[in-house]
Design goal:
By secondary structure, the protein is of the alpha+beta class. 25% of the residues lie in helices and 24% in strands. The protein is built from two helices and seven strands, in the order ααβββββββ.
């Protein structure tokens, strides 16, 4: 689990780092998926990377393969990759971010250390 968490931590950070105006939603998904797949957990990431935060619970922009919507300043959304190994464990790290004029603002400031819940 610890190895998978380290991979997930790096993948989530890569997704946040990839956010800036003019990149596609798909590229954010790719940024989180690539390190997870490279570590051998690709088949265990079973959902989109994120979704918009606004008037509805889930809305555009959806960070998912095939979504070529370009990010614009003031868009806010989640970046929440996960790794789920059936019968063993599941984990997800989620931050809410906003696209700024020149990058990203991360609204989360909580510690991202691994916690185990029975």
């Amino acid at each position: 689990m610890s190895e998978a968490f380290d991979v997930l931590f790096a993948a989530q950070a890569a997704g946040v780092e990839a956010v800036r105006p003019g990149v596609t939603c798909e590229s954010i998904d790719h940024a989180t998926r690539s390190p997870i797949a490279a570590a051998g957990f690709g088949q265990n990431f079973i959902h989109r990377t994120g979704h918009g935060i606004g008037l509805a619970t889930h809305e555009e922009p959806y960070s998912v393969k095939g979504n070529d919507l370009l990010l614009e300043a003031s868009m806010s959304f989640s970046i929440e990759p996960g790794i789920y190994v059936p019968g063993q464990f599941g984990m997800r790290i989620e931050d809410i971010v906003a696209v700024t004029n020149d990058g990203v603002e991360n609204f989360n400031n909580s510690d991202h250390t691994m916690g185990i819940v029975d």
